[in-house]
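User: Can you fold this complex?
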Amino acid sequence: MLEAVRRFFSRRGYLEVETPNRIPAPAPEHHVDAVACGGWYLHTSPELAMKRLLAVGFPPLFQICKCYRDAERGDRHLPEFSMLEWYRPGADYRFLMTECEELICFVASELGLGFSIPFRGGAIDLGRPWPVLTVREAFARFASLSLDEALCRDVFDETLALEIEPHLSGNRPLFLCDYPLALGSLARSKAEDPSVAERFELYLGGLEIANAFSELIDAVEQRRRFAEANDFRVRTGRNAYALSEPFLQALAEMPASAGIALGIDRLAMIFTDSHSIDDVVCFVPEDL
Amino acid sequence: MLYTASDLKKGLRIKIDNEPYVITEFNFVKPGKGQALYHCKLKNMINGNQFSRTFRSVDNFEAADLQHKKMQYLYKEDDKYYFMDNESYEQVFLTEEQMGDAKNFLIENVEAEILLFEDRPIDISLPNFVDLVVAQAEPWARGDSVTGNTKPVTLETGYKILVPTFIEEGQKIRVDTRTGEYLTRVKD
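Assistant: Here's the predicted assembly.
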């Protein structure tokens, strides 16, 4: 699977990079906790480093690396997991939807799976194009309350996870897009509707596989959002992270780009029809 | 003792609204960029009521103060079953409802494990196997049976059970308390 992913990107002119896993300043996000390591932190994603490379003129980039997030453990979560991230200057999130379809169809065919992937008693039909649903429409269609009510009552995550996600496990992939701006801290807002971010999540078989943005390149706005996320973290009893000044300076030079993070372990769950993320890795923390 | 949401797991016993609950199902969910949610099915350990609830990582919980104590069954009065703590000689009782099926297998002076929540008795667990005397058995003639090789008898506790036809009144048999079924004849 990893060989197929690398072939896909190298044929398209993407450059594979490696960036440090141990960093002094992870991006402050509301609900992502970094693991402390020797006075610094293990990265929660290679996002900041890869954006710095784009800012100094690198071509389209991809990276496959381990990422670390504290206290995330469940059927679909490991505190150490494999991430595929790729960035494309000059593109937006719509472009990445198409590229996501092409990548996953390519990998499926290289694995000899074709366009119908057996999964949990049914099959996922990879025939393109894949359906797109906005978050607002998803709330209207599947939830007991509207998006605005859910935000107002602070039950967005509960409603999405418990009421909406069970409906996203049909036989088709799905792009859930246009998240409320407050929920995409490194995403650009949409020109036609500034209340939402140009962000999508790809669902396959009900599993959230990838998260993509049209990247925010406004350093002032980014600093404000980091500060807001740090305030939230402190308010909810967690630590604030130092801001990465080299990143914020580089952001001003970064070309408009689209970027996406895809969970390799979860994609492996899809292709192997696995119930738990434990089934696609050699060891889980409890084994060690 | 205080638990946080990240301690939640199947089988953990916590206190909610002053009642003990056991987590019967547990799921960690975390929608993209969203917060960690801990989706639990809980069962009330006193009345058996079940419900689902989703907790956030900021939530915390008191451990349910539960302990098992070996006690001796004394007697039944009205619908109360009285037990005595072997160490303190204190007496406690369980209601008929709390006893559940255990009442079918309990005779006086036998020891059982009583589950206490904050010193209040809420449940009983018996050994897997108990030996009981057949109090009443009709004589059994070959050919009477439509059920094959078994016949119904009444045990000293009043419990009716199917046993092989060779079992007679006054004999002792071993019963599996989990299934309520006959296992074997016991010779004194």
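The two ends of chain A are 25 Å apart (CA to CA). The mean pLDDT of chain A is 96.
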